[in-house]
Amino acid sequence: xxxxxxxxxxxxxxxxxxxxxxxxxxxxxxxxxxxxxxxxxxxxxxxxxxxxxxxxxxxxxxxxxxxxxxxxxxxxxxxxxxxxxxxxxxxxxxxxxxxxxxxxxxxxxxxxxxxxxxxxxxxxxxxxxxxxxxxxxxxxxxxxxxxxxxxxxxxxxxxxxxxxxxxxxxxxxxxxxxxxxxxxxxxxxxxxxxxxxxxxxxxxxxxxxxxxxxxxxxxxxxxxxxxxxxxxxxxxxxxxxxxxxxxxxxxxxxxxxxxxxxxxxxxxxxxxxxxxxxxxxxxxxxxxxxxxxxxxxxxxxxxxxxxxxxxxxxxxxxxxxxxxxxxxxxxxxxxxxxxxxxxxxxxxxxxxxxxxxxxxxxxxxxxxxxxxxxxxxxxxxxxxx
Length: 385
Description:
By secondary structure, the protein is mainly beta. The protein has one domain: Neuraminidase. The chain is built from 3 helices and 26 strands. β14 and β15 (about 215-220) form a beta hairpin.
């Protein structure tokens, strides 16, 4: 009997080790500071390093939903001192949710939402605009590239093509479409109805060194349908090397109820092959959180809460000189403002042997999952295309 209990305990400890010990990195907060608060409402950020400078883009307006939405772009050499580089506006549109990327020919590209709103707090269909710059200060005229009703929320460049996912933003068709473009302006359908379980909305795509594509998907609450975040994985076909786009077949992982309504989802691969995510979480009040994504097992674990609360999230992520830079917005200090966090993310030292360390159950949880947040995921759905 003792032998059976011993083996059962070993199995339980192995499970705990695999679940709670799935995070092989530690995170130290070096600095968090406010970098902009001049508009009544400052929100929805993105961050990029380009031409030896940092650029942070975000929306300014009278409120969270208003007719005067415009995109402010800040510039900094060292991520300490910031100055305004540009202000992008478009007559008749509320510009929202800025996203920055670098085109294959080296220009800086701005993409964001465009809603033809007639009055503040009015619901309106949202489409997508884009514009380009060679110096970060002078920008081409914004151009509508996806008509209001479908919102291409974010694009990522890979091997000369921009990939992005559009979602229902007024048309009432709750599914995702995968789009592709060779110039960042003209987008073609690549996978129609890519995903449609629950109410999926914002999606960020990222590519690994082997060109595997990962999609981090927000799902909103809608009737009794699931609203947990999803992780999509798609490998390029052998023909990808011939210049033909792959990414027709996707595998989907449910990341768990702890990540319901994971607003402003973003992810980045850092040295060592580790994937860090970020977005809005709700347990204990809305806040912006940093996560660890286990792409092999399709799970996500909360690492820490950034100083944030209320109206918050939409992080931008940049890895530079062994530091993770995170832009985001928050209203925890009384006004929606733009913040920049500097974080040290390091691999953990090799774990001690299982049994000696695992005998202290509390120690295992505290060391491997210091926030106490449960690890979501495990459920897999496969869609063949």
